[in-house]
TrEMBL record:
Source organism of the structure: Smallanthus sonchifolius
Protein name, per record: Uncharacterized protein
Upper taxonomic lineage: Eukaryota, Viridiplantae, Streptophyta, Embryophyta, Tracheophyta
Length: 404
């Protein structure tokens, strides 16, 4: 008798466990999904893996199952909230790859099962920016770092015990499931390996596009890259593809010198090794200045140096790094009068839905290597390690596997 009761108890327990696992993993179009998310509850404190509720997608939204995500320095700024507005609790993350789980009303271009990259800036396809060849600053879906809600109803799709958890950059990929506006989703080749191409959803496309689409160096030109993290090294890769004759990499982290060689950087300069302002050092190395520069540090002093180190008459500087919200860029107007150009870009001027599938194809055809940007891997439960690697300057990109 005792054995019979015990066996039945085990059977009931096994059933309950199976139901719990099922609730976590099956697709449930139109229903709330409970899943794991890494929640940033306080500035600078380790993310907490929690079970959260993810509401179904509303009009023009899609719910994604994220399979791989990676860490970009922009996540770190908003987690630290030192130079940015604090907004907590929040689910960070914007560089990722996943699968469409369900779609909301009005979504016709995506369906469950599609392989996708969510992107922090969107493309409605209708506005003047989306219709312009020169802009990716969509009126409806352009990057908004302070908004923590969905635009459809001004509410969050994430909650825990009835309390809202804010979104980040419209993507919030540090969650097994997330809800994203369909205009912020690039549908990609179903054969593309998400553990690799996820890095194309922010950093690598941004850096490469900043050089190829915005700085546009001509063959044989010299290019300076400030900041040799993944974004800067992707900018260097862009310079190599464009046929730059010299690619001068500038970084305060001496260990970047070796890494940079793999990305076509021909000379490395560490500002710590010089007494003079770095723009003067670069000007002395290049007979008056480089033809193009791309800044990928987020440090406003480096931004000013990046501008002032380009040659007068034709030099073009491009800002990519995200500055502190109150930073001011100061330079003498004469630097502009002397025919230097200053530009800036989000996402390397790529339109996410129109252009990113093609960038993924370049990887598929082996015209673009992303593996060399991937220096670390961690399971989702160890996501805080990815922050440590980046803060110590050890990693370029750390891939976070959601089911590990
Ligand atoms: N505009 C966009 O669309 C966009 C997209 C992605 C990332 N970003 C920004 O690009 C920047 C780089 O991102 P990442 O993920 O490659 O970061 P990262 O931390 O991996 O790399 C930044 C590098 O800059 C170096 N650096 C910092 N201050 C410097 C200085 N004063 N002079 C020289 N080097 C300096 C660091 O040592 C580091 O190697 C960040 O500011 C990030 O927010 C912008
Ligand atoms: Zn990013
Ligand atoms: Zn638009």
């Amino acid at each position: 008798m005792a054995k019979y009761v015990l066996e039945n108890c085990f059977a009931v327990l096994a059933f309950l466990l199976a139901m719990k696992t099922k609730a976590r993993t099956t697709t449930m179009s139109g229903e709330v999904i409970r899943c794991k998310a890494a929640v940033a509850r306080e500035a600078g404190k380790p993310l907490v893996i929690e079970e959260v509720e993810v509401a179904p997608p509303q009009k023009m939204e899609v719910r994604l199952k994220i399979l791989f995500t990676s860490l970009c320095h922009t996540d770190v700024y908003f987690w630290e909230a030192k130079g940015q507005n604090p907004l907590f609790p929040r689910i960070l993350g914007h560089e990722a790859g996943g699968i469409v789980e369900s779609v909301g009303e009005g979504v016709t271009e995506l369906k469950p099962g599609d392989k996708v990259l969510p992107v922090f800036t969107g493309e409605c396809g209708e506005c003047r920016h989306c219709k312009s060849e020169d802009s990716n600053m969509c009126d409806l879906l352009r990057i908004n770092t302070d908004r923590g809600v969905m635009i459809n109803d001004g509410k969050t799709r994430f909650s825990k015990d009835g309390q809202p958890i804010y979104h980040f950059l419209g993507t919030s990929t540090f969650s097994e499931y997330t809800v994203v506006h369909s205009g912020c989703v690039a549908k990609i080749n179903p054969d593309a390996p998400l553990d690799k191409v996820c890095v194309l959803s922010c950093g690598i496309s941004t850096g490469m596009g900043a050089t190829l689409n915005v700085a546009k160096p001509k063959k044989g030109m010299s290019v300076a890259i400030f900041g040799l993290g993944a974004v800067g090294l992707a900018a260097a890769e862009g310079a190599r593809i464009a046929g730059a004759s010299r690619i001068i990499g500038i970084d305060l982290n001496a260990s970047r010198a070796n890494e940079a060689k793999k990305f076509g950087v021909t000379e490395f300069v560490n500002p710590k090794d010089h007494d003079k302002p770095i723009q003067e050092v670069i000007a002395a190395m290049t007979d008056g200045g480089v033809d193009r520069s791309v800044e990928c540090t987020g440090n406003v002093k480096a931004m000013i140096s990046a501008f002032e180190c380009v040659h007068d008459g034709w030099g073009v500087a491009v800002l990519v790094g995200v500055p502190n919200k109150d930073d001011e860029f100061k330079t003498l107007p004469i630097n502009f009068l002397n025919e230097r150009t200053l530009k800036g870009t989000f996402f390397g001027n790529y339109k996410p839905r129109t252009d990113i599938p093609g960038v993924v194809e370049k990887y598929m055809k082996k015209e673009l290597e992303v593996e060399k940007f991937i220096t670390h891997h961690v399971g989702f439960s160890e996501i805080n390690k990815a922050f440590d690697y980046m803060l110590k300057g050890e990693s370029l990109r750390c891939i976070i596997q959601m089911d590990a």
